[in-house]
Design a protein that fits this description.
Blueprint (H helix, E strand, L loop, with lengths): L39 E9 L5 H14 L5 E7 L2 E9 H12 L10 E4 L8 E5 L21 E2 L1 H7 L5 E5 L3 H6 E3 L13 H14 L3 E5 L4 H12 L3 E5 L2 H8 L7 E3 L1 E2 L6 E2 L10 H5 L6 H10 L6
Parallel strand pairs: 2-5, 6-10, 7-9, 9-10
Antiparallel strand pairs: 1-3, 1-4, 2-3, 8-11, 12-13
Amino acid sequence: MSDTPHPGSTHSPISDSEAPQQGGGSSDAAGGMAAGSVEYQHSSFYKFVPMDETAALAQQLRDVHVQLGRSVGGNILLAPEGITGAIAGPVVALTLFEAALRRHPPLASLHFKRSFCTTRPFTLLKVHEKPELVAFGLPNVSGLSDRPDTHVSPQDWRELIRREDVVVLDNRNHFEFELGHFAGAIDPQVRHFRDFPAYVQAHADTWKREGKTVAMYCTGGIRCEKLSGWMLDQGLQVRQLEGGIVNYFEQMPDAEADWLGECFVFDKRIAIDTQRRETATTAEDVYGDDPAEAWRLARARRLDPGSSS
């Protein structure tokens, strides 16, 4: 099977029999949960795979959004190197949207990570096309590079991070680490993902001299996926948590044995616990009075005006 999508496909991704009834389980216009609505869930995903016809797929996904009564919202990014996204909606509509994504041949094996919602995470669906899925300021780094497999299952991760010859590296921003992290993990103190390579370069020689394996993790796995190949090129021994923190929470019922705190999520819910349930944490709790994060707090308030005091 070719890894390139069928250009300009015009068939409807959702049949009339599959489409949910208008209004069933929908949310109110303000973005909160409507009285009597069905359960909402959140779904995150990514896949590095060649994508030549992103414009056609983008339009198909917008069509699916309309066919499902605009009940599924979120952000989806398409690039020549693949797809990444986070969507949410009533469970039935969300499942149909996921099925529509998998009907696209390169995405047939797309894996979805579910978590739970009290707040509606997204009001609109936005589908973007960009040159790359994850940018961290280094040229000629592609998620499509043929590299050794560095993934570690959640079950094996638990043992890995307890080893003396392992450095556990949090591949997220400082404010995310502050809210929650794996026990024993290092906080690189970065404010933007593009600053992470500089931290690695500053410590690479020490890690190599000490014979350390760098075990890194991020929220859903995509940052580690792209960065791991570059780190291998630096001569480092690298392992990455398969599917990221959310997958760890899903696969390990006792994740709280290894995880301290909560996990920040980039939507209106703000944070989830190890059971993948929304917490009461607010944007103000996360960003506080830190001037360096004031722009993030302002953005969070724009996304959810009711959250500001």
